[in-house]
């Protein structure tokens, strides 16, 4: 008997956009099933697991491996019901934008001289080849980091390594200590790595604002003959 997240995994496997991702060891050695089973066990025990099962694999569904030209790595989904929909930093809640996302969008606005977005839904980025992946694809309501040890991180690590190996030119936006450690997985002779501090207001170094990652990423993509990302969310 399989639970909702295992079912969502099977549904993802059956989609055309999954083809590139399914070559990762995570999907070939039983890891994906094992991690999904842990999340389903948490659900069965009465925990509220987020995002909804059908949204757990949104990051790799909206951005097939062969389309990736920018990678943004997050930690785990927002632990408030209704906020997360499977994309790192992206927000569909009805309250004020989360602090880190607000910092990201303010930097984008100032960097590109465009209005501050009213929307926090980053699906538009994902559809343009921006992989917005968390190191854990699930969390429990009110318990940030609850599923960080379930084994999801293997997917993020393998995805970064595969993108580095298979794609010709990708910008990796690595924000904060855990993300920056993944820079070792990237071939810098092919790709651009832009590192910065975490956009969280708890970052005392405040070394994210003013780094201009959006204009730098687009300039490099254009230099490589690729379409720049339209980062505007309200356009």
Automatic annotation (TrEMBL):
Residues 61-221 form the Uracil-DNA glycosylase-like domain. SUPFAM superfamilies: Uracil-DNA glycosylase-like. It is found in: Cytoplasm. Transmembrane segments: none annotated. Pfam families: UDG. It catalyses: Hydrolyzes single-stranded DNA or mismatched double-stranded DNA and polynucleotides, releasing free uracil. The active site is at residue 76. Keywords: Cytoplasm, DNA damage, DNA repair, Glycosidase, Hydrolase. It is an enzyme of class 3 (hydrolase). The keyword DNA damage applies. InterPro entries: UDG_fam1, Ura-DNA_Glyclase_AS, Uracil-DNA_glycosylase-like, Uracil-DNA_glycosylase-like_sf. It comes from the Bacteria. Its main location: cytoplasm. Its EC number is 3.2.2.27. Signal peptide: none annotated. GO terms for molecular function: uracil DNA N-glycosylase activity. Belongs to the uracil-DNA glycosylase (UDG) superfamily. UNG family. Excises uracil residues from the DNA which can arise as a result of misincorporation of dUMP residues by DNA polymerase or due to deamination of cytosine. PANTHER family: URACIL-DNA GLYCOSYLASE. This is Uracil-DNA glycosylase. It comes from Microvirga splendida.
């Amino acid at each position: 008997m399989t639970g909702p997240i295992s079912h969502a995994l099977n549904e993802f496997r059956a989609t055309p956009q999954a083809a590139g991702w399914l070559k990762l060891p995570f999907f070939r050695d039983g890891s994906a099933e094992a991690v999904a089973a842990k999340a389903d066990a948490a659900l069965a025990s009465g925990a509220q697991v987020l995002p909804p099962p059908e949204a757990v694999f949104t990051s790799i569904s909206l951005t097939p491996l062969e389309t990736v030209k920018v990678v943004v790595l997050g930690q785990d989904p927002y632990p408030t019901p209704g906020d997360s929909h499977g994309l790192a930093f992206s927000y569909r809640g009805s309250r004020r934008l989360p602090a880190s996302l607000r910092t990201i969008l303010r930097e984008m606005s100032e960097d590109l001289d465009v209005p501050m977005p009213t929307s926090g839904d980053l699906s538009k980025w994902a559809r343009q080849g921006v992989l917005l992946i968390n190191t854990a694809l699930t969390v429990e309501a009110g318990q940030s980091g609850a599923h960080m040890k379930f084994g999801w991180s293997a997917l993020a690590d393998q995805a970064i390594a595969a993108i580095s190996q298979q794609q010709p030119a990708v910008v990796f936006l690595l924000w904060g200590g855990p993300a920056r450690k993944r820079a070792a997985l990237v071939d810098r002779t092919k790709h651009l790595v832009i590192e910065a501090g975490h956009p969280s207001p708890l970052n005392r170094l405040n070394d994210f604002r003013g780094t201009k990652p959006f204009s730098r990423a687009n300039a490099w993509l254009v230099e490589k003959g690729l379409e720049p990302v339209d980062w505007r969310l309200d356009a």
